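Practice set, problem 2.
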Amino acid sequence: MPIASDVSLGRDVRIFQPDLVNLYGCTIAAETKIGAFVEIQKNAAVGARCKISSHTFICEGVTIEDEVFIGHGVMFTNDRSPSSVNPDGTLQTEADWTVVKTRVKRRAAIGSNATIIAGVTVGEHALVGAGAVVTHDVADYAIVAGVPARVVGDVRDRREMNPVATTPAGLPGRERRSVPGSDKDYT
């Protein structure tokens, strides 16, 4: 598995086993850590100080902002209507589909084995539970879990469990009392 010559690596990027990754045509910003058996495709971007855990697939069209955690085995998709053939039975080529872009915002965390469906945005500081299938946008600070992923909480209510949240640059106070998409009140 190679690191292609067209990959842009920022300062102090750490790839723990360079012979066991597949990176091509992507951009990875400073101080990001990448585990073994990770594939990052062309036209994907990973921000600074991220951690991309082993066995993760980041496809074309995915943008991951700074300070994001991606757990083991996370899968991103970029096609909402996948098919191997056209209606006439001929094999599809790149000309037969359009990449649907996905964004993971700053300081979000995605748990192991989650699947992020094409076209969604995972908000700042959001937490996606392990094994979740994210089919819709996730609001800033929301905790989502399940198949399909649903809002189950707000990370601001779990500050004691998240040391980042207690730093001056961490999470702000509770500006709102509920998470959009949830009928629960988080005070």
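Problem 2, part (b): a different protein.
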Amino acid sequence: MSYGHIVAGPATLFTQSCSRIVEKPSFDVVVAGAGLGGACAALWLSVSNRVLLLSGTAPAASTVAAGLINPFAGRRVTPCWHADLAYKDLLDTLAHADASDTYDPCGILRTALDEAQSAKLRSLVLEHADSFTWLPPDEVHTRFPYVSAPFGAAITTGGVVNTPRMLEYTHGTIASRCTVVASDLVGWEDTGSGVTVALKSGPTLRASKLILALGAGYKSFPVLSALNLHCIKGQIVRVRTPESFSHSIPVSGYGYVVPLRDTLILGTTYEHSFQNDQPTKVGSKNILALTQQMVPCIKTADILNTAAGIRVGVPGTRLPMVGPLSGNVWVLTGLGSQGLLFGAHIGRNLVNWITNPEHVPNELRLQKKRRI
């Protein structure tokens, strides 16, 4: 048998009664956590299973994400893990959640930061002609006069998901066929034949499987703190769209600038040491200074608000972590800044992986922290 329990913390305010689950305290799967990972898992698992989703009350990092779908992210402009398949799984997940209209496949204008990156982008155009279109500096200036790209830019496959609305639609689809409760997990016991699940508010439940998609909440459970996970704070700044920003395509390079209706979402910070999950003036200042190098008109834009969230990553791999903690308890975490792509891909495959744990890719399997 294995078990976990939460470390004592502040009292939590619950917004939904647990009374509806008293009459049916047994489920095939309990999914703890309703961010991108948990929501995608519950969406696909609920096709053929009795699922309970614990939506909790702690804000997920995904609720403040810009929703940028960028299969070729990072300074090295390398394709993310299983990029083509993950992108297809994202589209299928959006359709399955009746949320396809939350995604704008507008592409991404990826500016080159120096000559070396310019050469890299041009080579990718040759290798991935269906995913890249190269624009020399003069063409960038003609088509996107508000963008500074002295080394050129490429338009890549991708776009923007309105993440809060996507999650709203996904939760709605899940709620139409299974149970969603705004309560937090406080502990569990794997009995071998199933799992006993304890909630902060409500009855003790029984399930065949428990999926822990807790995001930064994993730190509340000592058994999970032994895993090779690391929290990274990310901040965004929302500004009113300047009149000179006349196109709906997001811009990436020095951070990112993502149009959403009449605002721009600017990001992001990667803070490995932080005091809390609140946005800071220093973070905002850094984001504005960074993105202005790419889109100078941001300098005069009106700041509307700021937000921050805590991502969870896996040091060394920068890939998600998924697999059995014990026979009936699974961990789904470490989506980092690719929550939409990774969450959809894992959610789509989780039914198969739970049935056949040997099918979980080696690079995604659980790993513990190395002892120094």
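Answer key, part (b): Residues 2-62+165-228+316-364 form a domain with the FAD/NAD(P)-binding domain fold (CATH 3.50.50.60). Residues 3 and 189 are 4 Å apart (CA to CA).
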